[in-house]
Amino acid sequence: MPDTPAAPVILGDVPGSFPHSVLAERHPAIIRQVREALPYGPGQHRALDELLESCTQGVIEPLPEDADDLGRWRAWGLDEYAGRSWFDVPWLWSESYFYRRLLEAVGYFTPGPWQGIDPFRPSKRAELDAPETDEELAALDALRDRPEPERARALLHGSLWGNRADLGFRLSAAGAEAARPVPALVADDTGTLWSLLPPSATGTLVLVADNAGRELVPDLLLIAHLLEAGRIGRAVLHVKPYPYYVSDATTADVVDALRRLTAAPGAAAGYGRVLWSAMADGRLTLRAHPFSCAPLPYADQPGDLRAEFAAATLTVVKGDLNYRRLVGDRLRPPTASFRDATAHFPGPVAALRTLKSDVVTGLTAATEAALVAAEGQRWRTGGTHALIQVNPGP
Ligand SMILES: O=P(O)(O)OC[C@H]1O[C@](O)(CO)[C@@H](O)[C@@H]1O
Fold first, then answer.
1. Which end of the chain is more exposed for a tag (fewer CB within 10 A), N or C?
2. Assembly ipTM
3. What is the reported pTM?
């Protein structure tokens, strides 16, 4: 039984709260960023003006009648929420719908010259091409001759801390990227995670990706290592079917990251080749399921996805947003059980996440008390703490 079934769903209606600031400040900043990123025409600028007005002072508008995904959004709650303020509906819903509308405004879904053009691509590319990425890739050379458990641990932590590289987050938390990560994890089930992926295993890892660029690259390196070390036989990488939360990874971002790896000097290129051939022979496959951009928790996932996660040896869910969707976007006490909150998940599941929103479960009372004593409530959203939590399943 869940320990706190009535924990309130997070809304964005409390001025001064983190969710409110995302809706009131971050979304307008994202609209400004998108306007400047690409040479849009007057129609696109007008549509962005309308979205800005709607999401800050207006109400949620329905999708156009001819939108391909209208039925899907209706099933996800559009009819219930249309006409209400963006601040008065579940925060997760409001945020997700914002990205859907933003893409609509720039013509992403409309047949024509702007169809499929990712408004966030310039910032994603800049990050992938940055000298810091070269430095991170060069560090792989020193890892090459280390014992396998050490390499596995380093790459797991690379993937975990890569989650700090979130471009939307940086818009409102300047300095979080530069701030030194606090090394001790607030929860650490690493032992359980490795027990599910022993060497010489043949299972399937599903990795539900989060951000592109400097998070996706270490995610791919981790997958390459697990394949090469024989800890898994195959991997399935879930990406978003369309650009989302600024920097979330799409198929195009996977292609960019793989090309970046294979073109790099040293050990990085070797990892790139492992992944390239794993794609070619089917040991690494991509999925871009519509539910990956749904405004709903994973407890509401559709049957086909449920069957896929049920069949996996382990599903690794990356990042803050996926964590919110995994445990439910609710204000539970931080000591609420992670296992109870994820009991709905159909198979073994691990969360790798840096903390960038109020939602958290599975902390000990002592850990929570120490964090509060040191930082007040800032530890929840500052992006400097991280966790590895595992529910090995029933
Ligand atoms: O890229 P991540 O780790 O999912 O983080 C997403 C960010 O966006 C938020 O949803 C707020 O918009 C927070 O959860 C987090 O700061």
1. N
2. 0.96
3. 0.94
175-216 tens-digit pLDDT: 555 555 556 899 999 999 999 999 877 899 999 999 999 999
74's enclosing H/E stretch is: helix 70-75
Q: What are the residue boundaries of the structural domains of the chain, listed by start?
A: 18-119, 122-391
Cβ of 329 below 6 Å from ligand 1: no
Q: How far is the CA of 41 from the centre of ligand 1 (A)?
A: 30
Question: Is residue 253 within 6 Å of ligand 1 at its C-beta?
Answer: no
- Looking up tokens 């299972």 gives 203
- Based on its alpha-carbon atoms, the radius of gyration of the chain, rounded to whole angstroms, reads 20
Structure tokens at 62: 């329905």
Residues 232, 203 contacting (CB under 8 angstroms): yes
| Spatial contact of 35 and 3, defined as CB atoms under 8 Å apart | no
| pLDDT tens, residue by residue, 276-299 | 999 999 999 999 999 999 999 999
Alpha helices of 213-288 — where are they, by DSSP H? 216-228, 251-263, 267-281
CATH of domain 122-391: 3.40.50.10880
